[in-house]
Amino acid sequence: MTNATDQYSFDVVVIGSGPGGFAAANRATDFGKKVCIIEKSHIGGAGVINGVLTSKTMYELSMDYSVAARVDRGYRASALSVDYNLVRNTVLEAAREKQYQMRSQIETFANVSHKGTISLITGYAKFKDAHTVEVDDQGKMLTIHGDYFIIATGAHPRRLPGVKTDGKRIITSDNILSLSKFPGRLLIIGSGIIGCEFATIFSNFNQTQVHLLDRSNRVLPYEDDDVSEFVSDNLEKNGVIVHHTAQLRCIREHPGHLEVVLDYDAGNSRVIEVDVALIAIGREPNTQNIGLETLGVTPDKRGLIPVDENGCVENNHGHTHIYAIGDVTAQAQLYSVAEFQGRLAAEAIAKSICYLPDYSNMSTLMFFKPEVAAVGANEKTLQEKNIGYRAVFYSNILVNRAIAMRNTHGFVKILVSNDDEQRILGMRASGPQASAYIVAVAHLINQGNSLSEVLRVFYPHPSITEGIQESMRALASKSIFKPVAFPKHIKVSEWKPGDPKTQTPRDEKIRKSQKK
Ligand SMILES: Cc1cc2nc3c(=O)[nH]c(=O)nc-3n(C[C@H](O)[C@H](O)[C@H](O)COP(=O)(O)OP(=O)(O)OC[C@H]3O[C@@H](n4cnc5c(N)ncnc54)[C@H](O)[C@@H]3O)c2cc1C
Ligand SMILES: NC(=O)c1ccc[n+]([C@@H]2O[C@H](COP(=O)([O-])OP(=O)(O)OC[C@H]3O[C@@H](n4cnc5c(N)ncnc54)[C@H](O)[C@@H]3O)[C@@H](O)[C@H]2O)c1
């Protein structure tokens, strides 16, 4: 770092220390680069605070609590209680643990005896020109010059028009840790991943009556109907009141409570009382007010920065020396994607690209009860692209390890190409360990493997993954347990272009229930 009257120069300037920025900075040191990370707030971004690590810590605690509360397993905990402040302290302890690891790494590479170095600068960064950013550290201005820049500024919760958040009673996921106690009654607006995860967490602790507003009749609207229905039913079993096909008309603030008016597609309305409303209707990229206009870069209508396959930002004149990664780009808003893209940008700057991302093997873990894991294509995406497939559903009811766990609520659903090769295209899995074994199928997809590769291997017994092998055998009509004997638990189907889209009788069922 060279310092001349608060002016600093670096090979690579990274804006944002979330999973994308942190990975990019550290990979750049592998190439001997002098790097700085500029962070306006918490180190680790949404990868740590008010995001992945804090929500997952809270999830794990809530799952432990819900297991401890069970009375059907031969044991019974007595006088079980939970205190929000103590839960919050444990969550913050987990976040601090990770942040100290990140800071230890940065301090190690602040040492100039290393070939590559990292400096951490605190403040809000904004481009002044193509090679300069200004950093505002609470009024103290710094000027940072860079040969290359990596924009990793992440995303923030989308605002709901007409509803103002106050961080106390009307909140977003950024304010969960500011709550001082479990809300008695919580309305969650938005039934995507964040909405369903917090519905799971708060219902697990069993201190809160949870209402989940689902404006369509599908929670997780991008997943196949059977998966969406499975998740929705589980939320309801856990005590969540799911308001399908409901639109929020307004929230009226009273001194002791919030009055919420919901309008259902069926024509009726309902007024409910809650203590806290959590808005979780998606996240928008942090691309405003960072000086993109000075670079000639125009975000798309969703605010995303246009990039090439390496993450290089394109302006009106073509490629630039600026990269954008993670939640500010068009790919999925996931930790693993931000991290991969960060590493790739650093490699591209060093002209040493190792691997380009193959998004067909991208996986997502969803922290519900039970957990759900997804990799590759689902039926919806294949039908949209007119790609034929065969599908198999195999319930954990038939998997010995799940039987031993007394935990058979789950399944694997695998899609393969509808040809002789039967290449694996995607999997959805739920139940114990689904988040751990999904990556095995990601590898199979990445290697272009087919059903036969799975049939060749010894699957250890008793393991949850035996469901994967038995489901593949069922697709090949070679399974040990037969679909004809267990029609609800082993299902094989196929879809060809021209066939009607897959449907469930759910729409009618929900319309009837809302009219009651
Ligand atoms: C509640 C929640 C739970 C989630 N759970 C999961 C999960 O289980 N799995 C998963 O894969 N993903 C999950 N995500 C998504 C994941 O957090 C993001 O995809 C990921 O953090 C994106 O990384 P990023 O580096 O692009 O941005 P971020 O993590 O958002 O980091 C951006 C950083 O840039 C900083 N910054 C912004 N503007 C400036 C500026 N102008 N100057 C300086 N600094 C700036 C911010 O302060 C922030 O620290 C979750 C998100 C939320 C909100
Ligand atoms: N486990 C994970 O991987 C994980 C966990 C949390 C978040 N994330 C990431 O964070 C991103 C944001 O999560 P999210 O749940 O906020 O977004 P989302 O896109 O997953 O879901 C948003 C939901 O809000 C609904 N919605 C949108 N506008 C609405 C309105 N006006 N009224 C009512 N409902 C409305 C949508 O129909 C959808 O169901 C996700 O896309 C995901 O990539 C991932």
UniProtKB/TrEMBL annotation:
Q: Which UniProt keywords apply?
A: FAD, Flavoprotein, NAD, Nucleotide-binding
Q: Per the database record, which ranges form the Pyridine nucleotide-disulphide oxidoreductase dimerisation domain?
A: 363-471
Q: Write out the catalytic residues in the record.
A: H461 (proton acceptor)
Cofactor(s) listed: FAD
- Tell me the segments the record calls region Disordered: 492-516
Tell me which Pfam families the record gives. Pyr_redox_2, Pyr_redox_dim
One cellular-component annotation, GO: oxoglutarate dehydrogenase complex
Q: SUPFAM superfamilies annotated for this entry? A: FAD/NAD(P)-binding domain, FAD/NAD-linked reductases, dimerisation (C-terminal) domain
Q: Which PANTHER family does the annotation name?
A: DEHYDROGENASE, PUTATIVE-RELATED (PTHR22912:SF103), DISULFIDE OXIDOREDUCTASE (PTHR22912)
What is this protein's record name?
Dihydrolipoamide dehydrogenase
Organism name? Marinilabilia salmonicolor
